[in-house]
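Milestone M4 deliverable, item 7.
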Amino acid sequence: MKFRSGLLLGSAFIAGLALAPVSDVLLHRFGGEFGITKAMAAEDNASSTYKLLSLFGDVFERVKADYVTPVNDQSLVENAINGMLAGLDPHSAYMNAQQYRDMQAQTDGAFGGLGLEVSQENGFIKVISPIDGTPAAKANIKPNDLIIAIDGKSVQGLALDTAVDQMRGPPGSSISLTIKPVGKTKPVVVKLTREVINVPSVHSDLYGDIGYIRLSVFSENADQGVRDAIKKLQAQAHGKLHGYILDLRNNPGGLLDQAVSVANDFMSTGEIVSTRARHPEDSEVWSAKPDGDVAGDLPMVVLINPGSASASEIVSGALQDNRRAIVMGERSFGKGSVQTVIPLPENSAMRLTTARYFTPSGRSIQDLGITPDIQVAESDREANAMQPLRESDLQHAMENPNSKKLPPLPPRADLPAIAKSIPKQPPATWPKFDASKPTTDFQLQEAIKIVDAMKPVSSAAN
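Output delivered:
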């Protein structure tokens, strides 16, 4: 079974799980006195299940018979399955045949659409992050923007999957989105042309003797893209690279195996991540390979922000816990769960949360996210902007299982002296952020200072 970490699409069930061990305790304690047996309890549970299924059948037949317009059986059953899974957590979901094909295309690296990662909030569609180089990014759509209409039709009450389906379409076709930008009251209409969305987009640059790698999403070719970027940067610098910046800002995640591989690209020892499942035999631990660090153990900074989620948090958490890199930016999204894609009949599938993942120090980042070693606000954040969306804001978000049990990580003693002088936000005179001008990217410029300060003395003197 292959684990895939969801791309952030968005309990009574948890209460049901909690009842199982309590029942066992009661049976052992009072079974002899009252003649209660586990077999009788199991029979009662089965009877309750049959009654609930009978209730479902009654509702199903009543809707078919009396709903104001005829509804086909497939639609009713799919809606019921959707409701069952969506009620568990924000990332478990049912996918019909078309949605399953779309997901496979997305994780394989290409699909037709706008390049938006979205969730649902108060009946509207909320932007998690745009993918670099896509129509959404080119149109300057930002995290936390609300999509209130698609092609002039309100999305109020529209299922998230339906809204995503409407935004996808043949490359070259046009679409209009009515958007309420974050921090503003007046909606704007944005016209876009759908394109083939190729993911991940690995972008690299050389800033002096510092290599910069931007990874926008963890799809099937993420690890190879990072390795290719490292080789390219090493060639450009003629073997005189003195450090790296790995930019995971607004990276919504992707595949667990790719997260492990990318972390291993910068590590040669230590644990990367562990997953803990309901059944102990399904739990796993991944560790770095001795020959894994293709970056040569050079100084490194990882940039994160509230749009950094899932696989991004695995990588940044592994590099932070192992003291391989300094994490810089803003607290990440906080998605600490793993989803397994399970094929179903009729070419459909379900995406089911099957495990939680933990950083090497034993931290679950569910709800909490990764806290940077050096906190620096984004350059384009307005002072009065609303708080960024995080996992804890999603409906049915799972609680952190150990937030009250583990002490916080000790402060880092290996930060360069210049870290104390890094401001927490851009000065008022800082130019407006322009993605085409790295000099306007405040976090990036501060990261360059940190990597530069970590150069070996012998290298700095050359």
